[in-house]
Amino acid sequence: MSENLYIPEEASKAVRYEAIIPQIESLISDEPDLTANLANMAAALKEAFGFFWVGFYLVKDNQLVLGPFQGPIACTRIAFGKGVCGTAWKEGKTQLVPDVDAFPGHIACSSASKSEIVVPVFKDEKVVMVLDVDSDQLADFDVEDQEYLEVLMGILSRTLN
């Protein structure tokens, strides 16, 4: 795949997801390096949607450790069950948070973050990382984002050895 994404201009969110998901799949399908794949996925999502922050936290030594991301500096480590990311890891399900200030125990890595979606990634039925996407707008994510990001994380999951 080339180093350029095709992103339909002025298209609906669904059309943009439908355009970039096969491009991301092509980008990561033949690349065995996880760091490279996560970095490209974060960059592609940020480029396609202009998210405030998008990145991955990987499960290491019973905590989430910051992985490849796009955006301002971030929290480096998150405990199991803590914040939105730790909750997604603990519960093994997507967390869709329209107002992070209303989320009990939210970890404010950036005061500019207003809403968030966190999608777990599974290997052998265990959460091995999470995709974390933040917006500087309230209620910026919805079920449509959840459905498409879960599809994308399923694709990523199938590439894990």
Entry keywords:
single chain, 161 residues, Beta-Lactamase, 4 helices
Task: Explain what this protein looks like in three dimensions.
By secondary structure, the protein is of the alpha+beta class. The protein has one domain (13-159): Beta-Lactamase, CATH 3.30.450. It is 37% helix and 25% strand. It has 4 helices and 6 strands, in the order H-H-E-E-E-H-E-E-E-H. It has a 6-stranded antiparallel β-sheet with strand order 3-2-1-6-5-4, sandwiched between helices. Helix 1 (13-29) runs antiparallel to helix 2 (34-49) and helix 1 runs parallel beside helix 4 (143-159). 35% of the residues are buried.
Q: How many beta-strand elements?
A: 6
Give the CATH H-level superfamily.
GAF domain
Percent helix:
25-40%
Strands of the largest sheet, in order across it?
Answer: 3-2-1-6-5-4
The biggest beta sheet is recorded as: 6 strands, antiparallel
> How would you state the average pLDDT, rounded?
93
Net shape: globular
Whole-number count of domains: 1
The CATH architecture would be 2-Layer Sandwich
Could you state the order of secondary-structure elements as H and E? HHEEEHEEEH
Fold-level CATH name: Beta-Lactamase
- Indicate the low-confidence ranges by residue numbers: none
What would you report as the Rg, rounded to the nearest angstrom? 15 Å
Measured between the Cα atoms of the first and last residue, the distance is 22 Å
Beta-strand fraction estimate = 25-35%
- Helix and strand content put the structural class at alpha+beta
CATH class: Alpha Beta
Q: How many helices?
A: 4
